[in-house]
Write a structure and sequence with these properties.
- This protein is α+β, with helices and mostly antiparallel strands.
- It contains 6 helices and 5 strands, in the order βαββααααββα.
- The radius of gyration is 16 Å and the shape is globular.
- The two termini are about 15 Å apart.
Amino acid sequence: MVAVRSVMKKKVVRISADDTLWIVKEIMDLAHVRHLPVVAKGELVGVVSQRDLMRASLSNVMGISAEEQKVFLEGVKIAEVMSTPPRTIGPERSVQEAARAMAEYKIGCLPVVDAKEIVGIVTETDLLHYFASLPAR
C-alpha cells in the first residue's frame, strides 16, 4: 500500500476565511494552485477552489473590466463561497482511498490532516501522476 504521505504536497498555502476572493485569485495566479485550504483561528474550516472562484466571478459572463472584477472580488468573503465542511484524509491512508473519496465526492483535492493539523494536500493531479507511473499490466 502506498500512503498519501508519499504523493502529497507538503508545502500548503492556506488562506483565512476572512480574506476575500481577490486574495484567492492573486494567490492562485502567483502560486499556480487550484485549491486552498481555508482556516479560521488555525483550524481547517473549508476549501476554496478555482471552480468556486469562477462561479463567483462576474467577468466571465458579463464582460466587466479587470478593475470592476477586482472591486467585486474584494467584496466577497471566502467563507461565502468555500466548500464546507472540508473532506480530509490522513497521511497514512492509501492513495486508492484518496482517489475513491475524490471520485465519490466529486472534489479535486483533499487536505491531509494529522492530529487536526494540516500536514499536506493531495490533488487529483498528484494521484494521476502516481497512477500513471505504475507499470502497465
